[in-house]
Design brief:
The chain is an alpha+beta fold. Helices cover about 55% and strands about 15% of the residues. Helix 1 packs antiparallel against helix 6 (about 180-220) and helix 9 (about 315-345) runs parallel beside helix 13 (about 470-480). Bound molecules: adenosine-5'-triphosphate and magnesium ion.
Length: about 500
């Protein structure tokens, strides 16, 4: 959920809760007002009755049956109210209710005394004898035996129960009437209006954040080299961010991100420059070293040929062999480093031409035939589909890649082993596979094979006893990437290795 949606939802919920709170408060206030006005009326009514009939206790004692009718007459025009004459213990002596009360029923005296006291009360809730256990608004007045005089003992109470229809009904009616009222509609309208206004405000306030997010996403997508206007100058990065000129927090944030991007771009440019110098240096060094190393190798080979028929030179030839091997290794390393430096250049361009890949595989197989024969390994070029597989490739580079793979396979194949070079069409891709029956690669090494200078734990080739420099597969991967393809290795220790290059084929 976006920040905008979260804020809008929060405001809406706040509005809703406020509306519910207002309705609940109105209901409670209404109920309290209802209780207070009922109590006020009941108290005034009892006061009038006691003033007009101060001898109620005596009347009840003398004429109990007529007294009940008399009480009924008093509440004739007060529906929902019942009058009770109580003794000082709360026992009902006479009542207007037709309902039979439980034997020995006594009204709780606490609320009766509270209501009968002279203290001003908002309202009193007491027992309703008709509904045992429920409480309702009650009023009470003390009665004496004879004339009410100060100091006379209380002989009983006149107790009035004002029972509402039902509490729930009451609330529902109050709610309905409240909602009907224009006041409540006005409250709801205000809440709705406030919510709409708040949503609009949120959208306005968070708009710069959305713009900033879009700008940062653009930098993430396009990289540090290009800013939103497409220019590459690092100094323009700050102005490219929206709302960077405002004085609020968004402006601060935009300026902070802008400064950070400027720093990153400057550092990135420095890094690129240094990387370029490094690559150029390695490339030049490789170029400069290649000729002397080739010349040294040639001299050493000539010397070796000269001493071939001189048995007394045997110890010298052994030294010569060591020197020759090291010179060749150094030449190979220099060549690999130079190639990688060249391939890593961002400006490097392939010299592509459409080629039948089966021919390329045949050529590489032929190139390695003599070495393979010396090692007792057979190199076979197989084309399962028996048809031309055309692809736009840089012939020289791709040959180099396949040669690296065959070189590896030869290094790790024991005499009697087989290396199979095959090409197949897989949809729009051409699959070049170099399969060997050599030593295989441990599963833990496979993910790291393409790291520069990485050599698996079996880096010393069992077939030739030679170790490499761990650059061959890195070069292959770079060449394949430049062609827009991918490289996959499958291997089983002790059984062999399959390396497959997937390249886009010609449509
Ligand atoms: N066909 C294979 N069979 C067994 N192991 C292999 C095979 N191909 C590659 N490897 C392992 O992968 C490692 C990396 O290979 P890579 O070609 O990158 O380097 P290298 O052959 O050691 O050196 P370089 O190619 O630079 O002379 C090798 O050291 C080897 O252990
Ligand atoms: Mg290699």
């Amino acid at each position: 959920m976006t920040v905008r949606a979260k804020i809008a939802l929060t405001i809406f919920l706040t509005g809703l809760l406020t509306a519910i709170g207002v309705v609940a408060t109105v209901l409670m206030a209404f109920q309290r007002f209802d209780h207070e006005s009922t109590y006020y009326r009941a108290d005034a009514f009892l006061k009038r009755v006691v003033m007009q009939h101060p001898d109620l206790m005596t009347m009840q004692q003398r004429f109990p049956e007529e007294f009940v009718n008399f009480l009924g007459g008093l509440v004739l025009y007060e529906p929902g109210t019942q009058l009770y004459l109580l003794d000082t213990e709360g026992k009902v002596l006479a009542t207007t209710t037709a309902q039979a009360l439980p034997a020995n029923y006594r009204v709780a005296l606490g609320p009766v005394r509270e209501a009968a006291s002279d203290q001003p009360m908002p309202y009193v809730m007491g027992d309703d004898p008709e509904q045992a256990g429920s409480r309702t608004v009650v009023a009470a007045k003390p009665l004496q035996r004879a004339v009410i005089l100060p100091g006379q003992p209380v002989a009983g109470y006149l107790y009035l129960v004002c029972r509402p229809r039902t509490l729930d009904e009451n609330r529902l009616a109050a709610l309905r009437s409240s909602l009907d009222r224009p006041g409540m509609l006005l409250i709801l309208g205000v809440v709705l209006l406030t919510t709409c206004f708040s949503v609009w405000m949120t959208a306005t306030v968070t708009r710069p954040l959305a713009r900033l997010t879009a700008a940062v996403s653009a930098v993430t997508r396009d990289g540090l080299e290009a800013n939103s206007s497409g220019a590459t100058a690092p100094s323009q990065a700050t102005t490219a961010l929206p709302d960077a000129h405002t004085r609020d927090e968004f402006g601060l944030l935009a300026r902070g991100i802008g400064t950070m991007l400027t720093t990153l771009r400057t550092q990135w440019a420095t890094l690129r420059r240094l990387d370029h110098f490094r690559r150029e240096g390695v490339s030049n060094l490789s170029h400069d070293l290649r000729s002397p190393l080739t010349a040294t190798t040639a001299c050493l080979e000539t010397l070796d040929m000269r001493w071939a028929n001189q048995p007394e030179r045997a110890p010298d030839r052994e030294l010569l062999a060591v020197a020759l091997r090291n010179t060749r290794n150094a030449a190979r390393l220099v060549q690999s480093l130079g190639d990688l430096a060249q391939l890593d250049e961002p400006e490097f361009k392939l010299r592509s031409g459409v080629l039948d890949l089966t021919e390329l595989m045949d050529d590489v197989a032929m190139r390695f035939a003599e070495r393979a024969q010396r090692q007792g390994v057979s190199v076979v070029s197989a084309n399962p589909d028996n048809c031309a597989v055309l692809a736009p490739v840089d012939i020289e580079l791709l040959e180099r890649a396949v040669a690296n793979l065959v070189d590896n396979a030869l290094k790790f194949c024991a005499p009697g082993g087989t290396i199979t070079l095959s090409v197949a069409c897989e949809g729009s891709m051409a699959a070049l596979c170099v399969r060997d029956t050599g030593a295989g690669i441990a599963a833990a090494d496979i993910p790291h094979l393409f790291d520069r200078f990485y050599q698996s734990r079996q880096s010393v080739a069992p077939a030739t006893g030679e170790g490499g420099k761990g650059l061959g597969l890195a070069i292959v991967k770079r060449i394949v990437e430049l062609h827009g393809g991918s490289i996959h290795v499958e291997s089983v220790l002790g059984q062999g290795t399959d390396v497959t290059l997937m390249l886009p084929a010609s449509g």
